DNA sequence: CTGGGGCCCT
DNA sequence: AGGGCCC
């Protein structure tokens, strides 16, 4: 969400003139130059990237929980601010991140729902990510309500399978009247728009959520374009219009990756708009930011971004915090810390991993500048305590973590003098899988001294190692199933073949569950009976069998389970039954359900998401650029982004989904595998070297991690 | 009358 | 341990 200062939206006034001045050619050369230097073993091609952003996310979740709220102006309140609001409220002038007082002033009838507890939002957030991942594993989260997807592989496969190029874009096309755009000129993006439409439809059908999507050739552009038409619409960006969308960002702060501090530095250099930066000599930028960052900034404002879609995996940290006007007694502090710890331990337990580090953060009261003075202290969590967390001895764990947290507190605050706190945050980090944790302090990898086997073994997987309660709770993706028909609602020729994607029997496509809303359906977890000796020797041929035998059973299971892990998905919607009664939200399982390979095409119905082809924001007016500084990124292979070596994205996409996830996890040194907030990622805590190396090679790190690589 | 989360880099 | 970025 944008800060309020950024919310004035003047895009429309600017974009047509964005081509007036050519910008130096050199700036766009980096990407193609780099890729040209590679061996052209893979057909050079641009990527197709999707960006999804849910509509008024917290408000939508609350409206699902209580449908009566749909018709009233609704604001989600955290302390004294309205963090977001539904579109009814927006129509009446309420904005995101508005103070409560201000919002009530704008809209006295505003209904406020407390939103300090993020549990429901977090859960829904992961359901969306899991759903997307079930189609294609290349999904990267950004915040709770956004996901990037690299569907290049899916596109290539589809393109090879069909010769039918007589179709149009789904949704809007930036800078055009979409009906007037020939999809045959941009078949890959056009296909992407169809996939985006279907994924949005799936999100609405299965989860009851609406959102926007952007379809473009990189993450930066996909994100920028997704917000063009707002709510519940999608927009594609053609290469010829890259200059338009970037050029109309008159405030540099709107460029993702340019935050408050960077914008201030730029402004000190006299740079306020994107065009200013486009024309600014990179050399003068280097002085202030350093070479790599300078170049990245230049690239960003040209719409160039070859950062990969990096599968997010399990979270690296879990934190819980509370703010208040004043806290000044040790008793309050202790009670607050214990309260936060109880909640955190609860979440940790469901995650199934063990935190190795505890961090305590405080904010002291200061009259001015209340929000930039945080102090923190962290400490290792003794193993015996960590195990209580994961094993479910909640009260026990809290009882032991409390004193540890208080020790950290006293490193910052002298209890014998007066203090005035306005915030306390408790954070678990350095999260390790049980297998890794139980094998000692080091990761599993340490068992194999000269292991080149680690790659094949996927030693860093993080899923729970046994079929414990944790596994059942976390491995089950809970998806709601509308009781509505499964009728196919389009005769779009591309949909039928989409059913081939993302499907894998073992993966267990989203299971439809009908019944009581609050009924929890147990997971039918298919176990990997990997204790078979022959299997062992096959899979672990590079592992010393003597060493292997010494490993705890759970770890053996871990090592054996990687390439062929079976798992079943499970379904149950705790409170999600209220799928919007909108008649147009029919759910099709076309991409997923194996039993529906023979898709029923129902004539006459359209799969439209009530996209008003409104012509607001001028984005529909066509403008062709004369000069083009904004060259399309060509030669950007997915292998540069998500795959090691020269892996053909098309071939990759044809692999069974679970295999895709395994491979990705190995390449990333993480193990998402199970679809849930837990078990997504391995602790790369101690693996930071590996992780860093990976990130560096992929250009995923550094300042503009969000968009531009180095 | 300015939340409550996350991520990565230094 | 802090800083900057994202939502
Ligand atoms: N500084 C911020 C920004 C966002 N959020 C939360 C509240 C939002 O509901 C959610 C998603 O942020 P968005 O910027 O996408 O805003 P919305 O989804 O609420 O609205 P929109 O429909 O404009 O996307 O993240 C937050 O707590 N603090
Ligand atoms: Mn968002
Ligand atoms: Mn949103």
TrEMBL record:
Family statement drawn from the similarity comment of this UniProt entry: Belongs to the DNA polymerase type-Y family.
Chain intervals for the UniProt region annotation (Disordered): 1-21, 605-626, 670-695
Pfam family, one: IMS_HHH_1
Biological processes, Gene Ontology terms: DNA repair; translesion synthesis
Domain UmuC: 49-259
Biased composition, class Basic and acidic residues, residue ranges: 605-619
Organism for this UniProt entry: Takifugu rubripes (Japanese pufferfish)
Gene behind the chain: poli
Keyword Transferase: yes
Keywords: DNA synthesis, Transferase
Record bears the keyword Transferase: yes
Protein name: Polymerase (DNA directed) iota
GO molecular function: damaged DNA binding; DNA-directed DNA polymerase activity
């Amino acid at each position: 969400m944008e800060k309020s200062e950024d919310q004035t939206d003047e895009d429309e006034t600017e974009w047509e003139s964005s081509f007036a001045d050519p910008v130096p050619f050199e700036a766009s050369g980096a990407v193609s130059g780099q890729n040209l230097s590679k061996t052209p073993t893979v057909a050079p091609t641009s990527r197709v990237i999707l960006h999804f952003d849910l509509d008024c996310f917290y408000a939508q979740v609350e409206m699902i929980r209580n449908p009566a709220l749909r018709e009233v102006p609704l604001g989600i309140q955290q302390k004294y601010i309205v963090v977001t609001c539904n579109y009814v409220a927006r129509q009446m002038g309420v904005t995101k991140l508005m103070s409560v007082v201000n919002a009530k002033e704008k809209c006295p009838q505003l209904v406020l729902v407390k939103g300090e507890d993020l549990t429901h939002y977090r859960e829904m957030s992961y359901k969306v990510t899991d759903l997307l991942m079930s189609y294609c594993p290349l999904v990267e989260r950004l915040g709770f309500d956004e996901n990037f997807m690299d569907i290049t592989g899916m596109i290539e496969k589809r393109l090879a399978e069909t010769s039918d190029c007589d179709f149009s874009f789904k949704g809007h096309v930036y800078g055009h009247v979409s009906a007037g755009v020939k999809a045959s000129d941009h078949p890959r993006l056009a296909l992407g728009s169809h996939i985006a439409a279907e994924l949005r439809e799936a999100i609405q059908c299965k989860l009851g959520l609406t959102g926007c999507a952007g379809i473009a050739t990189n993450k930066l552009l996909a994100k920028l374009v997704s917000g063009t038409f707002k709510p519940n619409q999608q927009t594609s960006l053609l290469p010829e219009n890259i200059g338009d969308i970037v050029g109309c960002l008159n405030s540099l702060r709107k460029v993702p990756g340019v935050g408050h501090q960077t914008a201030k530095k730029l402004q000190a250099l006299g740079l306020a708009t994107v065009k200013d930066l486009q024309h600014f000599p990179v050399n003068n930028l280097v002085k202030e930011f350093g070479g790599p960052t300078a170049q990245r900034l230049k690239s960003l404002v040209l719409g160039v971004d070859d950062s990969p879609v990096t599968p997010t995996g399990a979270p690296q940290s879990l934190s819980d915090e509370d703010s208040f006007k004043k806290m000044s007694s040790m008793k309050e502090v202790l009670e607050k810390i214990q309260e936060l710890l109880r909640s955190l331990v609860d979440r940790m337990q469901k995650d199934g991993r063990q935190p190795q580090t505890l961090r305590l953060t405080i904010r002291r009261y200061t009259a001015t500048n209340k929000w930039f003075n945080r102090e923190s202290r962290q400490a290792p969590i003794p193993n015996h305590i960590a195990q209580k967390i994961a094993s479910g001895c909640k009260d026990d764990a809290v009882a032991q973590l409390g004193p540890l947290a208080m020790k950290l507190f006293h490193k910052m605050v002298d209890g014998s003098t007066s203090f005035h706190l306005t915030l306390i945050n408790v954070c678990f980090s350095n999260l390790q899988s049980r297998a890794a944790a139980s094998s000692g302090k080091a990761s599993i990898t340490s068992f194999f001294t000269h292991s080149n086997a680690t790659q094949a073994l996927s030693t860093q997987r993080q899923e729970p190692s046994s079929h414990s309660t944790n596994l059942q709770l976390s491995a089950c993706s809970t998806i709601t199933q509308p009781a509505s028909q499964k009728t196919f609602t389009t005769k779009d020729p591309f949909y039928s073949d989409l059913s081939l994607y993302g499907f894998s029997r073992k993966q267990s496509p989203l299971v439809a569950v009908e019944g009581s809303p609050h009924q929890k359906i147990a997971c039918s977890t298919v176990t990997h009976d990997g204790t078979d000796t022959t299997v062992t020797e096959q899979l672990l041929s590079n592992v010393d069998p003597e060493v292997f035998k010494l490993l705890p059973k759970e770890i053996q299971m871990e090592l054996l389970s990687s390439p062929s892990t079976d798992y079943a998905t499970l379904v149950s919607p705790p409170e999600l039954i209220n799928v919007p009664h909108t008649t147009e939200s029919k759910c099709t399982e076309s991409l997923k359900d194996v039993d529906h390979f023979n898709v029923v095409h129902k004539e006459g119905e359209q799969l439209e998401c009530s996209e008003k082809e409104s012509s607001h924001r001028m984005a529909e007016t066509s403008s062709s650029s004369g000069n083009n500084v904004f060259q399309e990124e060509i030669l950007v292979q997915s292998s540069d982004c998500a795959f090691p070596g020269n892996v053909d994205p098309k071939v990759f996409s044809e692999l069974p989904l679970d295999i895709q996830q395994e491979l990705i996890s190995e390449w990333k040194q993480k193990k998402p595998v199970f679809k849930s907030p837990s078990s997504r990622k391995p602790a790369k805590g101690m693996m930071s070297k590996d992780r860093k190396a990976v990130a560096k090679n992929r250009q995923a790190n550094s300042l503009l991690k969000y968009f531009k690589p180095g």
